[in-house]
Structures are given as structure tokens and as C-alpha cells.
Fold this protein.
Amino acid sequence: MGQTEVETTLQRISSFEDVVGTIVLDVEGNVVRSTISNEDISAKYAAQLPGLAAMARSAVRELDPQNDLQMLRIKSHLHEIIVLADLYFTIIVVQSCSSEQSETETFAASPVIMPEEAPPQEIRS
């Protein structure tokens, strides 16, 4: 992918309404490009997220050695952070959580069974 294509892709991602910013890190975790104006915030994301993505990648590989991590999504009350970790770079996209989207809509789109919805398990003594 050429430099122009990368810039076009990052501009397209940044143009979405809820996107707060994008950060591109090199293989050593240095911020190469960031649309987040506060450099301290970009540095904090750069310091924390590659290690978390590496742990998630390790867990995926441990479960299935033929598999690999493609994307890591982290959702908090305020933001959703998407980490795309490649061998040569890492892209971090930070977006605000839509206040209009209800918690039920969020979980309805998720394949995860919530604890209160889990089928009862038979207890054997």
C-alpha cells in the first residue's frame, strides 16, 4: 500500500462522526502519525495498547497455533478503541461511544452470552 493510499484510508477513517482520532505506530511503538492533538494522550495510547494487543495475540495463538489476532476492540463507557496490529505497524482508532445506542443494542450485536442469559448448568455431586 502506497503512502497516498495510507493517507486516504486514514482520512476516510477519521471522517466518521464518532472517531475521536487515529494513531499510527511503527514496529518499535513510536507514534508516526496521530490525529489526536494532545501528544501526551497519543503517547499514553502508544505506551499501553501494543502490549495489550501482543497479549491478546499470544492468547489467540495459544488457543489455536494456526490462528492469529486481526483486531482488538476495547469498549469503555466513554470510548471504543480498535487496535489493528501488524508486523510492521499498529493502527489505533479511538471513537466515542454513541449515547443514542442502548446497552441492549450493543449486546444484541455481540455473539457473547451474557452471564444472566447463560443456560443453567446441572450440578453433580
User: Anything to note?
Assistant: The longest helix spans residues 39-63.
